[in-house]
Amino acid sequence: MKKIIRLMTFIALLTFYLTACKKSDKQPKTTIEKVQGKWSLQSEVLNEHFAGHDNITTTPGEANDIIDFRTDGKVYSVVTGIQDTSTYALSGDTKIILDGTQSYDIKELTSSSFIIYNKEIYGPDEYDEITISLKR
User: Fold this and answer.
1) Radius of gyration of the chain, Cα coordinates, nearest whole angstrom
2) For residues 79 and 61, what is the distance between their CA atoms, to the nearest angstrom?
3) How far apart are alpha carbons 132 and 43 in whole angstroms?
4) Is it the case that residue 134 has pLDDT exceeding 80?
5) β-pair partners for 37
6) Residues 6+ apart with CB under 8 A from 80
7) Which residues of 59-73 are buried (b: 16+ CB within 10 A; e: fewer)?
8) Is 109 in contact with 34 (CB distance < 8 Å)?
9) Buried b (16+ CB within 10 A) or exposed e, 24-46
10) Is this structure's pTM higher than 0.90?
11) Does 48 have pLDDT greater than 70?
């Protein structure tokens, strides 16, 4: 009887040890996998710089403002009650391109925060810049 108890104890300890030491099969998420899914719009900060002055407008997101990046390369949004569908693609791990023309720098991308930035220069002292902050 003692041999059976020792054998069972040994098997239990061996099983525990092997599963505890097993390396995780979970791979880190790629940039595209981090982007995909539903995000809530937290804020949009627009700076219209002209005549040497910043003209900053901050628009907070509303409770129902959602941006949904799908696996099919489309992004569906509902912002201030207006629905829109666009395309998106990544350029490396640092830029996201919307509708094939609007390029945004990815400033932050975590499991709960996504911040993108764009600057359009119109002249030596004229530009627009926008920062869009999303949360999960």
Assistant:
1) 24
2) 8
3) 6
4) yes
5) 69
6) 62, 65
7) eebeeebbbebeeee
8) yes
9) eeeeeeeeeebbbeebebeebee
10) no
11) yes
